[in-house]
Structure formats: C-alpha cells, structure tokens
Amino acid sequence: MAYSQINTKGQQYYLHMKDVTLKGGRLQRIYFFARDVRADAVDAMPSGYVSVENPRTGLLVLKKG
Fold this sequence. Notes:
Layout: E1 4-6, E2 12-21, E3 27-34, E4 49-53, E5 60-64
Antiparallel strand pairs: 1-2, 2-3, 4-5
C-alpha cells in the first residue's frame, strides 16, 4: 500500500520515488507526491525526511529534516 497523506484542503496525495540521471551522468533519487497511485509509489516515508505543505497551493513536498 502506498504511503498517503491528506493536505489541509482535504486532498489525498501519494508518495513516489524515481531515480533520475542528471546532465553530468550522476544518478539521483527524487521523491514526489501525486494525487494518484503509480508504479513507482513507496510504502513508507524515507527516514530523515519530513513532509511540508505549500500554504498557497496545498501541494506536499519532502524536505530533509
């Protein structure tokens, strides 16, 4: 089951992870929230991260904390 969180506007978001290759060839893992469950959804919040909500849009993002 994908990790989910509801923002203050009552919208449910699901956490996803993706490994991307940067221009210099370095591999980096990114985390993002989406309103639907996709194949790259994760089951738990990664350790060392906290979710923060953008007060204007209600979009959830992860920050190292």
